[in-house]
C-alpha cells in the first residue's frame, strides 16, 4: 500500500496547519482576480478588497478548479487562459463574479498565505484537528495498528487494521510445486476528512493483506457527515443562524457518532462476509484476453494508460488470473502511484472489483 507520514509527523502537520489556516467570508463583489509578475513569470492571484487596499493570495490548483466550476467557465478554457493569457482569465473571472447572483458570498479558505479552497458561504467546516482528537484515542483503545496516514491538499487519511483478527484466503499460485498459496487477511478501516470541499467525513471498512501489504476499502460500508449544516433544519441558511456554542455542540455530536462508528467498524459478521467474497472471487476466472480485460477494467474505473499498464504488469506477475487476482493487481498498483489521493482511490477500486456481481464480472470480460 502507499505509505505516507508517520503518526507523529501527521500530528505535527495537523497542528501546524491549524495555526496557519484562516477563513474569510467574501462577497463576490469584493473578490477580484488580479495578475501579478514575479521572477519573469505572470500569474493570477485572488484579491479580497476592502477600504485599505485588501489582501492578495496565491491560489492552489483546487481553488482554481472550484472557481472555474462555480463561474461555469469550462476547465480546459480556464487552464488555457491561466497559462497563456492570465489577463484574459482575470477579465473573464471578474466579469462573472459581478454576475454571481446565485452565490452572493464565498468562503475563502487559506493556508500558508494561499487560497486552498473556494466554497459556499454555508459550508460548515469539520476540522482535521477535531477528527484526529476524536478517533486517535479510540484507535489506541481498540489496540489497532496504524499502517498508513497522510494529509494531502485535499484530504486527511488514517488507515488502520486489527492484527489480532485474521482469516486465510486460498488462491492460485504460479509455482508448479505450490499449486495454492495462502493470503492472510485482517479487518481494516480508512478514516478520512476534507476541509476543502473534497468530500465528507468518512469511516470505510476494509481489508489489509499481510505479506504483500495490500489495502482495500469498501464503498458500501461508510459513515458520512457532509460539511453543510442546512440539512439539519431543512434550510441551507440554518447554520448561518446558529451560535458558536450551538455549532460546537452539533460538532460534538458528529464526533461522538464518528467514535461509535470506529468502535464498531470491525463487526465480525461484516468482516467474514468480505472474506467470503474474496474466497469466492478466487474461483471467478479471467476467461477473456487478459490485455483486453484489463483495458475494460481501466475504462470502467477511469485509469490512465500508465495506471492500466501497472495493473496489467501486477496481474501477470501475480499469476492469478481471477477476480481475486485482479483485486490484488489493482490494490498493488496503489503503491506505485505518486499521488496519495489517487492511491487511495485505487484501494477503493479494489473493493469495487470484489463487489462486482458474477454478471458484472462476466460483462467486464465481454471482449
Report on the structure:
The chain has 367 residues and is of the alpha+beta class. The chain folds into three domains: 21-120; 128-274, no CATH class; 283-364. Helix content is 42%, strand content 26%. The chain contains twelve helices and twelve strands. It has helices at 7-20, 61-70, 75-84, 86-98, 128-141, 244-263, 268-281, 290-301, 305-318, 323-333, 340-354, 358-364; strands spanning 22-27, 31-38, 41-48, 55-59, 105-111, 114-120, 145-151, 156-161, 167-172, 180-193, 201-209, 214-225. Strands 1-5-6-4-3-2 form a six-stranded mixed beta sheet. Strands 7, 8, 9, 10, 11 and 12 form a six-stranded antiparallel beta sheet that branches. The longest helix is centred in the last third of the chain and has 20 residues, at 244-263. It is globular and about 75 Å long. Residues 228-241 have low confidence and may be disordered.
Write the layout of secondary structure elements.
Blueprint: H1 7-20, E1 22-27, E2 31-38, E3 41-48, E4 55-59, H2 61-70, H3 75-84, H4 86-98, E5 105-111, E6 114-120, H5 128-141, E7 145-151, E8 156-161, E9 167-172, E10 180-193, E11 201-209, E12 214-225, H6 244-263, H7 268-281, H8 290-301, H9 305-318, H10 323-333, H11 340-354, H12 358-364
Parallel strand pairs: 4-6
Antiparallel strand pairs: 1-5, 2-3, 3-4, 5-6, 7-8, 8-10, 9-10, 10-11, 11-12
Helix pairs in contact: 3-4, 5-6, 8-9, 9-10, 10-11
Amino acid at each position: 500500500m502507499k505509505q505516507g507520514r508517520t503518526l507523529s509527523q501527521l500530528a505535527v502537520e495537523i497542528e501546524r496547519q491549524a495555526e496557519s489556516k484562516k477563513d474569510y467570508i467574501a462577497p463576490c463583489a469584493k473578490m477580484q482576480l488580479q495578475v501579478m509578475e514575479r521572477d519573469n513569470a505572470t500569474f493570477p492571484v485572488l484579491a479580497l478588497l476592502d477600504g485599505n487596499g485588501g489582501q492578495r493570495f496565491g491560489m492552489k490548483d483546487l481553488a482554481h478548479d472550484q472557481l472555474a466550476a462555480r463561474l461555469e467557465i469550462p476547465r480546459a478554457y480556464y487552464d488555457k487562459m491561466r497559462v497563456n493569457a492570465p489577463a484574459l482569465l482575470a477579465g473573464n473571472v471578474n466579469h462573472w463574479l459581478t454576475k454571481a447572483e446565485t452565490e452572493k458570498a464565498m468562503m475563502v479558505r487559506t493556508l500558508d498565505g494561499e487560497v486552498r479552497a473556494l466554497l459556499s458561504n454555508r459550508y460548515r467546516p469539520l476540522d482535521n484537528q477535531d477528527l484526529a482528537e476524536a478517533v486517535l484515542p479510540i484507535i489506541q483503545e481498540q489496540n489497532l495498528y496504524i499502517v498508513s496516514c497522510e494529509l494531502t491538499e485535499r484530504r486527511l487519511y488514517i488507515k488502520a487494521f486489527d492484527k489480532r483478527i485474521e482469516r486465510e484466503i486460498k488462491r492460485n499460485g504460479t509455482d508448479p510445486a505450490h499449486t495454492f498459496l495462502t493470503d492472510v487477511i485482517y479487518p481494516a478501516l480508512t478514516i478520512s476528512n476534507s476541509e476543502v470541499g473534497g468530500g465528507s467525513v468518512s469511516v470505510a471498512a476494509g481489508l489489509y493483506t499481510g505479506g504483500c501489504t495490500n489495502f482495500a476499502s469498501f464503498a458500501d460500508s461508510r459513515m458520512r457527515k457532509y460539511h453543510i449544516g442546512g440539512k439539519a433544519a431543512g434550510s441551507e441558511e440554518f447554520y448561518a443562524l446558529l451560535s458558536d456554542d450551538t455549532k460546537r455542540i452539533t460538532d460534538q455530536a458528529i464526533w461522538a457518532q464518528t467514535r461509535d462508528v470506529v468502535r464498531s467498524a470491525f463487526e465480525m459478521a461484516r468482516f467474514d462476509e468480505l472474506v467470503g467474497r474474496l474466497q469466492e472471487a478466487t474461483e471467478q476466472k479471467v476467461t477473456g484476453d487478459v490485455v483486453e480485460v484489463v483495458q475494460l477494467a481501466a475504462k470502467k474505473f477511469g485509469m490512465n494508460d500508465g495506471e492500466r499498464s501497472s495493473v496489467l504488469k501486477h496481474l501477470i506477475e501475480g499469476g492469478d488470473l481471477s477476480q481475486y487476482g485482479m483485486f490484488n493487481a489493482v490494490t498493488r498498483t496503489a503503491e506505485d502511484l505518486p499521488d496519495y489521493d489517487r492511491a487511495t482511490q485505487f484501494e477503493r477500486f479494489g473493493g469495487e472489483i470484489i463487489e462486482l456481481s458474477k454478471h458484472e464480472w462476466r460483462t467486464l470480460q465481454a471482449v
